[in-house]
Amino acid sequence: MRHTISLFVDNESGVLSRVAGLFSARGFNIESLNVAETMDPETSRITLVTEGDDFIISQIIKRFNNMVNVINVTDLTDEPRVEREMVLIRVEAKDKTRAEILRMADIFRAKVLDVGQKTYTLELTGDKEKVNAFIGLLLPLGIKEIARTGTVAMEREAKPSKKKGDKK
Amino acid sequence: MARMIGADMFFETLIHQGIDVVFGIPGGYVLKVYDVMTKYEDRIKHVLARHEQGATHMADGYARASGKPGVVLCTSGPAATNTVTGIATAQMDSSPVVVFTGQVPLPYLGSDAFQEADHIGITRPCTKHNYLVRRTRDLPLAMKEAFYIASTGRPSPVLVDMPKDVILGEDELVIPEKVSLRGYKPVMKGNIAQIKKAVGMILKAKRPLIFGGGGLIWSEASEELKTFAHRLEIPVTSTLMGLGSYPADDPLFISMLGMHGSYAANMAVHESDLVISIGARFDDRATGGNFEKFAPYAKIIHIDIDPSTIDKNIVVHCPILGDAKTVLKQMLELLPSEIKKNRKKWLGQINKWEREHPIGYEQNGDKILTTYVVDTLSNITKGEAIIVSDVGQHQMWVAQFYKFKYPRTHITSGGLGTMGFGFPAAIGAKFARPDKQVICVCGDGSFQMNMQELATAVENQMDLKIILMNNRHHGMVRQWQTMFFDGNYSASYFKVLPDFVKLAESFGAKGLKVERPEDVESSLREGLSTEGVVLMEIMVDCEELVYPMIAPGGAMNEMILGASDIA
Ligand SMILES: Cc1ncc(C[n+]2csc(CCOP(=O)(O)OP(=O)(O)O)c2C)c(N)n1
User: Which residue ranges form the domains of chain A, and what is each CATH number?
Assistant: First the structure.
């Protein structure tokens, strides 16, 4: 099953490899991983999406809790949450496809970030399904390059976690 | 506030922390630390090991025998990588070892400088935490945190990496009194609702059993355990790591369980209706490895300080997160003054199992049996010595036949099973407990892995005994080859061995050799009462096998009890 895990960690070197190490030690792949500072510059938030056996994921979460640099960890999988991902897509823009690309961007509320001689660069934000659908539609037109942020997620109602420490 | 260089801060902080012995070897990037060390000689004893793996096992043995953190100091690169086996060994058995390594100067990090290795990266999976210190002024805080993390919660090793410029840099010494880490707050007290639930289950149980582990020793819970077991009249079995937490001569004690556990202990687990596990992690060597068939009739209470051990191998009915001693106290407070126990049938059944298949041996040929040697040793020392075993058959026989009475007197590498651990760990244990008789019981295979530390023992004029069971084999490997590989003795025989007596003598130790069963007792007595480092080489039968044995993956009631059980 797919799990979306949210971690608050000390913003310092080495933390990310500790977190990732728990997955690699079990031969697990991380589907996406997003890290950035929170409002407190000493804390980073990690959103991690992985596919795996529920039992092993729960073991990994317990191990996260044991880590000195992990302040708080929540498995958002069964929580009401909002999830978003952003993607940058560079798509081939030929004379006969230019209009269609812009029309599709409009329907998906994507932004055009860069207009070149041969390509358009688009930005889209949405949940994974929306991002995938957009990519699927652009694919036949010739996608040159793609950059996805991976999922960022939040519980719908910020409730204090009971597990460990205080969330910043 | 005093200004000083990092190297001085290192010793000031150690002294502040109450550390008085450090095991190590000097080299490139820690030379300044060693240079200033002579100023602190009156307060900190440095033990010069002969190999960093040895130093790390010494620190580990020191920690296990004393309960205090053991400290290692060494340089970077090969020295640091040499500590890794020792660190992993300590981690598996929850031992608080703090390793300080020198490192290339910060600007050179990652440049493949001479003797550079990524200590932080290499030790990340085998430490509870590790630090790369970036500023001289941060060194005391990192050290305080390291000791705090290593010795609280589930004890574990921690590494502190000290780049040369941090060691040489000068700043004000600020040693924080308290450590506070927002991401690390070990839970000591058990949840009261869970404890009530557990007590309810215990009062109802007909065939309860205490399954004790190494956590009992780290939490110093022996007194509470004894009171608890006696008040409820619950029999006690122990994992390899738990031996010593409960006195072997107590009538409620039914010996070690697991792969080489006693028949009675394993049957009791299998037939129990309530397993109360305290400070154990249901490792496959303790459960037989068949988690599905484990204790099929039992509900399980699991008391442990580490949340990640709960539900890891065995799904339990009542987990209690907390320190063993604290939780036992909490449970004792909830016990009613009158308890209807009615244990006659259960204890009677266990007693019957004990009589049916006791662990034993028959020393009647002209070959010395290791079991006989260990049994004799147990009798001679009356279970009062600290026994540090190595890894192999002899280790299992020590666990089966030595009657441990006190916590911290049985020291062995259980989790990682590190051959070569025993002898250096015994050196460390002797530094921790100079008042105690410390005896290393090892195999010829294991001893060869760290025998260079004979020099360390002699140099420190230690009173340390080594009982080397020489069966000319990797005995445990041979046993598996006998039982599971049709006697194909591949690479388990030593064509060449040193003359261990002469070897000991060449280091300035004393050596004696025992070749006949009738000499075992008198030679042990002689060796044990001779001052100094004494190596007793006992020529033992290589054909003796450790029984009972649960074949890997077997259930706990499926034991091979002797040669006649092997198909
Ligand atoms: C470092 C290391 N290498 C290999 C092994 C695998 N191993 C387990 S027991 C054993 C043989 C031990 O021989 P010895 O020390 O002579 O003890 P005995 O079994 O003969 O009592 C070996 C090779 C190990 N546990 N540790």
Answer: 2-79 (3.30.70.260), 82-152 (3.30.70.1150)
Residue ID of nearest Cα to ligand 1 atom 1: B419
Does A7 contact chain B (CB < 8 Å)?
no
Whether B158 and B302 share a structural domain? no
Q: State the CATH number of the domain containing residue B319.
A: 3.40.50.1220
Alpha-helical (H) ranges within B365-513 are: 370-381, 393-401, 422-432, 444-447, 454-459, 475-484, 500-506
Query: Is the beta carbon of B90 within 6 A of some atom in ligand 1?
Result: no
Decide if A68 and B182 are in contact by the 8 Å CB cutoff: no
Residues B346 and B233 in one domain: yes
pTM over 0.90: yes
Asked whether residue B562 is assigned to any structural domain, the reply reads no
**B348/B379 same-domain check:** no
Checking ipTM against 0.90, whether it exceeds it is: no
| Residue B145's CATH number | 3.40.50.970
Whether B285 is in the pocket of ligand 1, judged by its Cβ within 6 Å, is: no
- Exposed/middle/buried for B74, CB within 10 Å: 0-12, 13-18, 19+? buried
**Which of B125, B130, B306 minimises the CB distance to A66?**
B306
d(CA B343, CA B341): 5
Distances in whole angstroms, Cα of residue B554 to Cα of each of A125, B240, B284, B353, B480? 54, 18, 10, 19, 15
- Report which of B14, B25, B95 is spatially closest to residue B53, judged by C-alpha positions: B25
Q: For ligand 1, atom 5, which residue shows the shortest CA distance?
A: B419
| Residues in contact with A162: Cβ distance below 8 Å, sequence separation at least 6, in sequence order | none
Chain A contacts in chain B segment 87-126 (CB below 8 A): 120-121, 124-125
- Best mutation target among B184, B305, B310 (most A Cβ atoms within 10 Å) is B184
Class of residue B188 by CB neighbours under 10 A (exposed 0-12, middle 13-18, buried 19+): middle
- Does the Cβ of B446 fall within 6 Å of ligand 1? yes
Is residue B341 in some structural domain? yes
> What is the pLDDT tens value at each position of chain B, 567 positions in all?
699 999 999 999 999 999 999 999 999 999 999 999 999 999 999 999 999 999 999 999 999 999 999 999 999 999 999 999 999 999 999 999 999 999 999 999 999 999 999 999 999 999 999 999 999 999 999 999 999 999 999 999 999 999 999 999 999 999 999 999 999 999 999 999 999 999 999 999 999 999 999 999 999 999 999 999 999 999 999 999 999 999 999 999 999 999 999 999 999 999 999 999 999 998 888 887 778 889 999 999 999 999 998 888 888 999 999 999 999 999 999 999 999 888 999 999 999 999 999 999 999 999 999 999 999 999 999 999 999 999 999 999 999 999 999 999 999 999 999 999 999 999 999 999 999 999 999 999 999 999 999 999 999 999 999 999 999 999 999 999 999 999 999 999 999 999 999 999 999 999 999 999 999 999 999 999 999 999 999 999 999 999 999 988 888 889 999 877 764
Q: How many domains does chain B have?
A: 3
Structure-block tokens of residue B453: 């530390």
CA of B158 vs chain A CAs: smallest distance (Å): 11
Domain membership of residue B18 as a residue range = 3-172
Same domain, B155 and B222: no
Atom of ligand 1 nearest to the CA of B418: 26
Decide if B238 is inside a domain.
Answer: yes
Looking at the fold, whether B454 and B514 belong to one and the same domain comes out as yes
Axis crossing angle, helix B370-381 with helix B393-401, rounded to the nearest 10 = 40
> What's the CA gap between B210 and B272, in Å, rounded?
10
Task: From the CA of B542, give the closest atom in ligand 1.
Answer: 20
